[in-house]
Amino acid sequence: MDFDLTPEQARFREDLRGFLDAEVPVEKQEVFGMLTEEQYQFGRGINRKLAERDWLAVGWPREHGGGGKGPIEQGILAEDLGYRRVPKSGFIGLGIVGPAI
């Protein structure tokens, strides 16, 4: 069984990490359990920028407003956003409610 990322998935991860390097400074990262209003608003802004790149709902089908990729790309996104402690905004709608509909 091959657990390596495909070249396209690896490129997505590389592009995402470059984006996060440029857009998420350490001082904006969420401290667990201590999300401020400023950080929340910052997270909303990051979501808008992710949406502009079709990355916000990367695993959703294009016909439903998503990026048209698969669960691996969705996992890459979740892992890297979590690693960078990007303040969460809209997670329940994007991660739970939307896919259930």
List the helices and strands and how they pair.
Layout: H1 7-23, H2 37-52, H3 71-83, H4 91-100
Specify the CATH homologous superfamily.
Acyl-CoA dehydrogenase/oxidase, N-terminal domain
Query: What is the mean pLDDT?
Result: 86
Termini separation comes to 32 Å
Per DSSP E runs of 2 or more residues, the count of β-strands stands at: 0
Main β sheet profile: none
Parts with pLDDT < 50 across at least 5 consecutive residues? none
**CATH fold naming:** Butyryl-Coa Dehydrogenase, subunit A, domain 1
Structure report:
The chain is mainly alpha-helical and 101 residues long. It has a single domain (7-24, 34-100), classed as Acyl-CoA dehydrogenase/oxidase, N-terminal domain (Butyryl-Coa Dehydrogenase, subunit A, domain 1). It is built from four helices and no strands. The chain has helices at 7-23, 37-52, 71-83, 91-100. Helix 1 packs parallel to helix 3. The chain is globular and about 40 Å long. The N and C termini lie far apart (32 Å). 23% of the residues are buried.
Task: Please sum up the structure shown.
55% of the residues lie in helices and 0% in strands.
Task: Provide the descriptors you would attach to this structure in a database record.
101 residues; mainly alpha; Butyryl-Coa Dehydrogenase, subunit A, domain 1; 55% helix
